[in-house]
Specification:
single chain; alpha+beta; Luciferase, domain 3; GMP Synthetase, Chain A, domain 3; 2 domains; five-stranded antiparallel β-sheet; four-stranded mixed β-sheet; 14 strands; about 20% helix; globular
């Protein structure tokens, strides 16, 4: 195995480490970012870029424009997280029979992806979370992917998901759902300590749940967080 390509979710350093450990002849990886609404791949990274920027999903395709905007639709500075927007001939004309949904998603020709990310000074895109998955705890924005990446670095954790749960004063609290590696044992306090070693206190999970079996993912590898939350329907797009 000389090449490994993946997509569907932001990649963790631990994933890349496992790729090169499992396939010692691997000479490089490729990651792609896009949506059904953008006719699949809109941004891609490979070769030396993937080695030098393992957390990035890359540069836009030649016919794709990117911008990052705040909640009011204004462009944000380089390095500042915001919603990822795409303009391209690849973008769909609209949702079939749903003009209201189309008007909310495509504004002035820009597809609002619902993903949170930022651009670096060289124009490389980094995806930090889904807007609907971002946790707001006591006024602090918490990106679940950052915590999930830290969790899966633990040798006893096979997979992890982070979701927000309601809190009467803080708005939301952090909950980690853990899939342990076969034969591994771990306590909730050990998991909290592991996260606290690298991340800020407000990002340490207040609640820890150990999941029985594999965490629910769709065919693209995306976590089905509505299933983990136990509420809300899973949309057709989330299953693709």
């Amino acid at each position: 195995m000389e090449r490994v390509a993946f997509g569907g979710s932001p990649s963790a350093d631990e994933l890349l480490r496992r790729v090169y450990e499992t396939f010692p002849n691997c000479r490089g990886t490729t990651n792609a970012y896009g949506l059904t609404e953008s006719s699949s791949t809109a941004v891609v990274i490979m070769g030396r870029d993937a080695l030098e920027r393992p957390a990035s999903v890359g540069l836009p395709m030649p016919n794709v424009e990117l911008k990052i905007v705040d909640t009011d639709g204004n462009d944000v500075p380089v390095g500042t997280p915001g919603e990822v927007c795409i303009k391209s001939p690849l973008v769909m004309p609209g949702y079939w029979g749903k003009p209201e949904a189309t008007a909310e998603t495509i504004i002035d020709g820009w597809l609002h992806t619902g993903d949170i990310g930022y651009l670096d000074t060289d124009g490389y895109l980094y995806i930090t979370d889904r807007a609907k998955d971002m946790i707001i705890r006591g006024g602090e924005n918490i990106y679940c992917v950052e915590i999930e990446n830290r969790l899966v670095e633990h040798p006893s954790i096979a997979d992890a998901a982070v979701v927000g749960v309601p809190h009467p004063e803080l708005g939301e609290e952090v909950k980690a759902v853990i899939e342990l590696a076969p034969g591994a044992t771990l306590t909730a306090d050990e998991i909290r300590q592991w996260v606290a070693e690298k991340l800020a206190d407000f990002k340490v999970p207040t609640y820890v749940e150990f999941y029985d079996g594999k965490l629910p993912r769709n065919a693209s590898g995306k976590l089905l967080k509505n299933v983990l939350r136990g509420s809300g329907e899973v949309s057709f797009a989330e299953t693709m």
